[in-house]
């Protein structure tokens, strides 16, 4: 039962990376879209793509938190007492990002929009970096079982920096790929399509480079993780690399067929690879899932909740995405034409 | 511990034995929860009022009702956005501020939040569908897409109340060696305090949302916009609040007796009663000074009478429990005053509702022309919020010094790491910005609705403005509203 819960928890982590991550990445592209005039087109597309779905995407984070603290309460307390600084920064980023995005849409003067937009965009980089750093601290065993680990080195260390940097570029890559497809669907092959295609390509290459560099970081800093990534998780890593390469080739050649899926697959496999490598430990190499787990009846409830989620939430999300995608709700197609 | 020390330990400084983080952590939790709780009624009840207006609009071809529904949905979306982010902060705070609670009792206290997450997920999805569905879905399909929002918000609130009420009356767990070794989920969720606390909050949501909505349109009417749109908006809100109010008084009275039975220390704090006795007077106002209730208005025997229907009913004083697990004098005063404010404001609202009922029954005068009524209705929303907050203070401060009654002291649950005053300061600043921003956005929306009509206004979760240069897909813009 513990393993089942762990799998459900990890499904949430992967979903948050793929969906929430893409939203953060969109914020990154918003940040670097240039001045108000130059960045208008890309920002409009980002707004339109994000607005209907980002609240639902954000909810995956809540899902991960509640499953973690219900099923593995000791690990949750250990993480929050050790990594409270990056967690607080991430929370700050989430608040500012949500508020900045929401208020930007409602403000009309350029000055206001600029302030809220900057808040939205900056916090879109801060939050994934912090979450990546948190993951690095957990993976490299810097969170002691009893909590209250080193408040600085637990997230300022090679693996955490790698995690943070990787999170930011992977989010940018995912968002770039999604936005490339969205731009293609709305305005054909010109304009924004090329704009996001070039950026997704660059992000993909950087993400690949960071991943390769990361191998050496892990080898020096988180040996067990490295051993398993190059051992039992190797097939996943290889497929992830192939998918990443395929996405880059697709972007290079200007194709969009299955681009989103392939990019998402690459990222998902990296995250799953981390999970597989760390198994059966929840914290570093010292607290196993079984040791951290709640009594069985709580785990049953969590699994039941997850099953209900599959039955209720998944069709609802599909409905939302379908409605947002085909224009029944969400962005006007008429608008994309002038978004230049 | 002497009384003078206790007094000092109250509001402004921590007792020597407490971790330095305890006071800022409690203040921060109180502030962020107190902020978040204001948004809850709108998720639960404003969405329902919106559906009522939507239904009326479609059923009776009432254009004004549809405009109300459309605008309320956009207001609900803004408040939902703020609620979502402040709710996320709360889930971080549970771990960062109260690791002891999560570590030792997460297995029981935590899982209702997992259920809440499920409801929140549904709410987030269908809020998007409903908000974006205006003019883009068939009117009745659109109406039905709003129903899950309303239902899910009730389920979500019930789940959070389950966790909170469990802290007041923890059941369904077996603790061995300081660790929860067995959890009986049904007993945890439907603990002894759950049903009444949930019902109380559920009704409070309708009261707050109803009176706040009514207040907005009362202000409009007072400013001379006495048209059908404003009167309808006022009526839907006010009648909702007014109808619920008497039931809330009944439920509150029942809860007071349940607290007398099940949470005697909280009841003693409410009654400001250090020593056990019968023929206990009800003290209105006043304060506990040097361990004695002083000042205030004393009604002989009333507390005993209310608690057990007889003046000879014995009420236990809080000095019955050992000093180490006794609420401080300052805490008792806070609980007592919060209770008085809650009952006082609730009584005001009840009188206002009765007056309206009287006017309505007599039909002598157009209610909207009664400026006194409109003035009182205009501030009724703020009074209802005050009532909600003070009721919540009674529950939470009344549980102190326990975080989980009889199981875990608040001081043992708090983090012992970090400068939480600094964190609290940042939180205050950020929340001031977010709260101010939200109010500003709502004002901008209102102004533009007034000057440019209904569809011109973009909202955080709404689609791009339909009218003007950005055309709504042809043939859809006239469905479901006047937009």
Pattern of helices and strands of chain A: HHHHHHHHHHHEEHHH
Number of helices of chain B: 15
Class by helix and strand content of chain B?
mainly alpha
Distance between the termini of chain B: 67 Å
Average pLDDT over all residues of chain A: 84
Order of helices and strands of chain B: HHHHHHEEHHHHEEEEHHHEEHH
Strand content bin of chain A = under 5%
How would a textbook summarize the main sheet of chain B?
A: 2 strands, antiparallel
- Biggest sheet record of chain A: 2 strands, antiparallel
- What percent strand of chain B? 5-15%
**Tally of strands of chain A:** 2
Structural class of chain A, by secondary structure, is mainly alpha
Mean pLDDT of chain B, as a whole number?
85
Overall geometric form of chain A: globular
Structure description:
Chain A: InterPro entries: Cyt-d_oxidase_su2 (IPR003317). Chain A: Belongs to the cytochrome ubiquinol oxidase subunit 2 family. Chain A: It is a multi-pass membrane protein. Chain A: Its main location: membrane. The complex is a heterodimer of chains A (340) and B (483). Chain A has helices at residues 2-31, 40-50, 54-71, 73-82, 84-106, 110-139, 158-187, 192-221, 223-229, 234-253, 259-278, 289-292, 296-326, 333-336, and strands at 281-283, 287-288. By secondary structure, chain A is mainly alpha-helical. Chain A is globular, with a radius of gyration of 20 Å. Mean pLDDT of chain A is 84; it is low at 330-340. Chain B has 483 residues and is mainly α. Helix content of chain B is 68%, strand content 5%. In chain B, helix 2 (22-60) packs antiparallel against helix 3 (63-97), helix 2 (22-60) crosses helix 8 (194-222) and helix 3 (63-97) packs antiparallel against helix 5. Chain B is globular, with a radius of gyration of 24 Å. Residues 1-9 and 461-483 of chain B have low confidence and may be disordered.
């Amino acid at each position: 039962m513990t393993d089942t819960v762990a799998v459900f928890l990890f499904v949430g982590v992967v979903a948050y990376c793929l969906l929430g991550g893409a939203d953060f990445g969109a914020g990154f592209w918003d940040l670097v879209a240039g001045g108000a005039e130059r960045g208008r087109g890309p920002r409009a597309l980002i707004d339109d793509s994000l607005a209907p779905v980002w609240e639902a995407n954000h909810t995956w984070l809540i899902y991960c938190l509640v499953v973690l603290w219900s099923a593995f309460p000791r690990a949750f307390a250990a993480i929050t007492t050790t990594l409270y600084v990056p967690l607080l920064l991430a929370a700050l980023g989430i608040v500012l990002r949500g508020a900045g995005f929401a208020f930007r849409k409602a403000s009309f003067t350029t000055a206001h929009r600029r302030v809220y937009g900057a808040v939205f965009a900056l916090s879109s980089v801060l939050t994934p970096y912090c979450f990546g750093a948190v993951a690095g601290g957990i993976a490299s065993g810097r969170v002691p079982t009893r909590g209250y680990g080193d408040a600085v080195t637990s997230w300022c260390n090679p693996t955490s920096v790698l995690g943070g940097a990787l999170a930011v570029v992977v989010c940018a890559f995912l968002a770039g790929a999604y936005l490339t497809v969205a731009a293609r669907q709305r305005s054909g092959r010109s304009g924004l399509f090329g704009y996001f295609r070039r950026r997704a390509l660059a992000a993909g290459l950087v993400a690949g480079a960071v991943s390769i560099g990361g191998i050496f970081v892990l080898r020096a800093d988180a040996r067990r993780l490295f051993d398993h990534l190059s051992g039992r998780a190797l097939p996943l890593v290889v497929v992830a690399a192939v998918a990443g390469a395929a996405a880059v080739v697709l972007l290079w050649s200007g194709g969009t067929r299955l681009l989103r899926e392939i990019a998402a697959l690459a990222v998902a496999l990296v995250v799953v690879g981390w999970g597989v490598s760390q198994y059966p430990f929840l914290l570093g190499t010292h607290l196993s899932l079984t040791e951290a787990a709640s009594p069985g009846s709580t785990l049953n409830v969590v699994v039941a909740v997850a099953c209900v989620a599959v039955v209720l939430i998944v069709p609802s999300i599909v409905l939302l995405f379908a409605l947002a995608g085909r224009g029944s709700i969400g962005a006007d197609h008429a608008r994309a034409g002038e978004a230049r | 511990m002497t009384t003078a020390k206790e007094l000092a330990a109250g509001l402004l400084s921590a007792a020597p034995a407490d971790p330095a983080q305890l006071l800022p952590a409690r203040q921060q939790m109180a502030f962020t929860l107190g902020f978040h709780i204001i948004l809850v009624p709108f998720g639960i009840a404003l969405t329902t009022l919106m559906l009522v207006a939507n239904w009326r609009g479609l059923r009776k071809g009432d254009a004004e009702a549809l405009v109300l529904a459309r605008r309320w949905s956009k207001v609900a979306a803004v408040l939902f956005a703020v609620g979502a982010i402040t709710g996320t902060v709360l889930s971080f705070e549970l771990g960062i501020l109260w690791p002891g609670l999560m570590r030792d009792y997460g297995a029981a206290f935590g899982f209702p939040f997992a259920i809440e997450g499920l409801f929140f997920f549904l709410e987030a999805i269908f809020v998007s569908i409903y908000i974006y569905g205006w003019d883009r879905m068939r009117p009745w399909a659109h109406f039905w897409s709003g129903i899950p929002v309303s239902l899910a918000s009730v389920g979500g609130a019930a789940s959070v109340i389950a966790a909170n009420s469990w802290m007041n009356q923890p059941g369904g767990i077996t603790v061995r060696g300081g660790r929860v070794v067995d959890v009986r989920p049904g007993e945890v969720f439907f603990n002894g305090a759950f049903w009444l606390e949930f019902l109380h909050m559920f009704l409070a949501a309708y009261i707050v949302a109803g009176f706040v909505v009514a207040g907005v349109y009362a202000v409009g009417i007072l400013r001379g916009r006495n048209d059908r749109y404003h009167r309808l908006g006022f009526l839907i809100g006010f009648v909702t609040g007014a109808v619920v109010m008497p039931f809330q008084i009944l439920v509150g009275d029942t809860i007071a007796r349940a607290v007398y039975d099940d949470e005697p220390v909280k009841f003693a704090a409410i009654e400001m009663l250090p020593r056990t006795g019968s023929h206990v007077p009800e003290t209105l106002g006043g304060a506990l000074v040097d361990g004695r209730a002083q000042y205030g208005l004393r009604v002989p025997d009333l507390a005993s009478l209310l608690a057990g229907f007889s003046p000879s009913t014995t009420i236990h004083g809080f000095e019955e429990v050992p000093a180490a697990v006794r609420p401080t004098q300052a805490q008792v005063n806070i609980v007592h005053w919060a209770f008085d404010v809650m009952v006082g404001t609730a009584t005001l609202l009840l009188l206002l509702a009765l007056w309206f009922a009287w006017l309505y029954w007599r039909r002598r005068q157009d209610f909207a022309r009664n400026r006194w009524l409109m003035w009182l209705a205009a501030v009724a929303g703020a009074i209802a919020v005050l009532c909600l907050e003070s009721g919540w203070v009674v529950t939470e401060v009344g549980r102190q010094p326990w975080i989980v009654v009889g199981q875990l002291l608040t001081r043992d649950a708090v983090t012992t790491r970090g400068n939480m005053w600094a964190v609290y300061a940042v939180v205050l600043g950020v929340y001031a910005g977010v709260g101010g921003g939200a109010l500003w956005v709502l004002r901008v929306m209102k102004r533009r609705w007034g000057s440019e009509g209904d569809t011109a206004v973009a909202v955080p979760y709404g689609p791009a403005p339909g009218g003007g240069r950005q055309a709504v897909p042809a043939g859809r813009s006239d469905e479901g509203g006047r937009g």
